[in-house]
Amino acid sequence: MTVTPELAPAIEVEDLRKVYGAKAAVDGLTLRVERGSFFGFLGPNGAGKTTTIRMLMGLAPPTSGSIRMLGRRVPEEATEIKRRVGLVPDDTLLFDQLTGAEFVEFVGRMYGLARDEARARAAELLQLFELDTAGRKLIGEYSKGMRKRAAMAAALIHRPELFLLDEPFEGVDAMGARLMKDILLEQVRRGATIFLTSHVLEVVERLCDRVAIIHQGRLVIDGSMEELRTGSETLEDIFLRVVGAGERPAGALDWL
Questions:
Q1: What are the residues whose beta carbons fall under 8 Å from the beta carbon of 179, sequence distance 6 or more?
Q2: How far is residue 138 from each of residues 1, 98, 220, measured CA to CA in Å?
Q3: CA dist., res. 246 & res. 124, Å (int)
Q4: How many Å separate Cα 154 from the centre of its chain?
Q5: What is the four-CA torsion angle of 208, 184, 72, 32, rounded to 10 degrees?
Q6: Contact predicate 109/54, CB 8 Å
Q7: pLDDT tens digit string along 147-198?
């Protein structure tokens, strides 16, 4: 039976691989993210999280496997998918020679908003993210936390159905992080889907209703916290258990 794009899962990945030279950064990843979920995608440094997001966005072609987002195929329908997705990349590649207001308005225009609407929404978003006083400041002068908030504002401007967020809270202070969490939870309540990577496991545990962990390019666990937890385990306990983190060898760095 054919499923219409509106009823299909937000993300469907099957046997996805990305090979660089002799190394598989992502190795046979199969994943399904339902619409309206807050999905945490975790893993140690170098596990393949950012590579996966780059493939989802069509920025890195897979070596093999298939990707469907919002019921549409990547890369064949990448343009239509991008219209419906908001992205906060890990490296926050923004335009440093634009002001915050110019950047967010520019992104709105790229998504097809009329000039007046893009300008009005940009002003509202900058105020929401407490960047309005820095709206005429060049992004190149922003702190890392301010850059993350500007990237989040730009990701919201076209009211996307799906958010891909790669370490969105990195460098953001407690007040900014709380604001961003509240906004993201509100987006889920209105039916959007969020695909989040973060090293801050406490945040993931509080926000996400489902979690997957990738290690050395392979999916090692996927489920709700209730399904994954053994006894009173925290997400940190689960993470360390499944990625095989061992204790410090006896005698190592005794001088510390």
A1: 128, 129, 130
A2: 52, 5, 42
A3: 48
A4: 14
A5: 0
A6: no
A7: 999 999 999 999 999 999 999 998 899 998 999 999 999 999 999 999 999 9
Q: Model pTM?
A: 0.91
Residue 68: Cβ within 10 Å count: 21
- Sequence letter at residue 143: S
Residue reference for tokens 């990448």: 78
Encode 36-83 in three state secondary structure: CCEEEEECCCCCCHHHHHHHHCCCCCCCEEEEEECCEEECCCHHHHHC
Dihedral pair phi/psi, residue 200, rounded to 5°: -90, 90
Structure tokens at 50: 């950012």
14 Cβ contact list (under 8 Å, min separation 6): 30, 65, 66
**pLDDT tens digit string along 38-59?**
999 999 998 999 899 989 988 8
- Sheet architecture: strand order including 72-74: 23-33, 11-20, 64-69, 72-74
Residues forming beta bridges with residue 169, ordered by sequence position: none
191: amino acid identity, one letter: G
193-197 β-sheet, strand order: 85-88, 162-166, 193-197, 38-42, 210-215, 218-223
- Name the helix (H) or strand (E) containing 20: strand 11-20
Q: Give the CA radius of gyration of the chain.
A: 19
Q: CA–CA separation, 177 vs 193, rounded Å?
A: 19
- Please give the single-letter amino acid code of residue 236: E
